[in-house]
Specification:
The protein contains 10 helices and 2 strands; from the N terminus they run αααααααβααβα. By secondary structure, it is mainly α. The chain folds into 2 domains: 73 residues, no CATH class; 86 residues, no CATH class.
Length: 184
């Protein structure tokens, strides 16, 4: 490559314009290189992180606006994948909860509602027996409530009811009017 000039300022400007004109080519070359040398790059990164354990911690404290912008770009780029993963997680937790708390009945995976006998697989919900669901939702998200109920079974606080019985019990002071199950 023939040098354009010896003047460093003009040289920098030339390099910037050259890179801008050929950015797509450089990006493609870099992508191929990264893919073919992935193991080496990961090993190098692991060594660097081991040698500088506090770097990221300090960087995050000193530059929260940059970190937040990066997170927002990532979320915007991967929104559909993340939403799908959240839905799958929510459904797994819901089924686990319903299996643990549903009233067992042969032929039903998750059991049935103890109030009306409805199959819980399609309509099962988490019911707060003491009526403290609103306060609990302020403290924790739905996933966290289900995890808590699964990991620390407390059948005096939670129950698995079908949606209709859960809503009816909430609107009737804790007792399902159609079937008489006392929720409080």
């Amino acid at each position: 490559m023939k040098a354009v000039t010896r003047d460093p300022v003009k040289r920098r400007e030339y390099n910037k314009t050259y890179y801008a004109r050929n950015k797509a080519r450089f990006d493609a070359q870099n992508k191929v290189y990264r893919e073919s040398h992935r193991a080496e790059a990961l090993a190098h990164l692991a060594e660097w992180r081991e040698a500088h354990p506090d770097y990221m911690k300090n960087y995050r404290k000193e530059h929260p606006e940059i970190i937040r912008a990066q997170q927002e770009r990532y979320l915007a780029k991967h929104r559909s994948e993340l939403n799908l993963r959240r839905k799958e997680t929510a459904e797994k937790l819901r089924v686990e909860f319903l299996i643990a708390y549903g009233e067992p009945k042969s032929g039903h995976i998750c059991g049935v509602c103890p109030c009306c006998g409805e199959d819980l697989l399609r309509f099962g919900t988490l019911h707060h027996i003491n009526g403290d669901g609103r306060e609990h939702r302020k403290e924790k998200c739905h996933h966290a409530m289900l995890r808590e109920a699964i990991e620390h079974p407390d059948k005096s606080r939670f129950a698995a009811l079908c949606f209709n019985c859960n809503l009816a019990a909430e609107r009737n002071g804790g007792q399902c009017p159609g079937h008489g199950l006392s929720g409080r």
